[in-house]
Sequence to fold (249 residues):
Amino acid sequence: MNSNTRKAELAANLERVRARITRAAAGLPAEPELIVVTKFFPASDVALLHDLGVRDVGENRDQEAAAKAAELAGRGLRWHFIGQLQTNKAKSVVRYADLIHSVDRPQLVRALGKAMAAEQERRQAAGLEPRAALGCLIQVDLDESDLPPAAGTAARGGARPGEIRELATALQETEGLTPAGLMAVAPLGADPARAFGRLAEFAQLLRQEHPGADMISAGMSQDLEAAVAAGATHLRVGSDVLGPRPAVR
Fold:
């Protein structure tokens, strides 16, 4: 497919998704921001999305995200790391990510804090401007079952609701990091409206202690309407914009 054909396809898909968001947000004070999840798609697609007005893109694999961010540097894109993050990838991720949506344990907070300190030192030594504080969303596990995942399925991941306050405090107290809000994925087989309603309640409690932590990252292609109704500020949509995911190499 040539670039003009692909651009037209992406433009049509974006228009449909944005129309869904507008309908879902009718009567609300503001529409949530769209993050286009570009994992497994080439940097050329991200460049076309930029031409179509997209500024927020999501990735969940560090190696892929780092390469795309380097190739597309200078375009004013905001990179959202949305996948489960290993502590040994923190040093790489802080070089390009504007926001991390998957903070779920104290060890990761400590790793990100150390990585941010090292990144600031690297920039100072290179005569570069220091990077802005790294916004971190706490990923919340909304599964209400105490049972382990069924055979053949994977847990969505995230901290338990009772751990949110501890993680937010750790983020606030770590230089270079700031609590930005909450992120969640609706549990498999669960009612997304109920799940996102619980997330909104947790977000309200978080804002009482951390007023700046006002992001709610929720909703994907299949359940964005439920997320908007529950007060999501950011939606993570991939396949409905980019099409079927290509085979992983």
Observations:
- The first strand starts at residue 33 and ends at 37.
- The beta strands are 33-37, 56-59, 78-81, 99-103, 134-139, 177-183, 215-217, 234-237.
- Residues 3-24 form the longest helix (22 residues).
- Residues 147-155 have pLDDT under 50 and may be disordered.
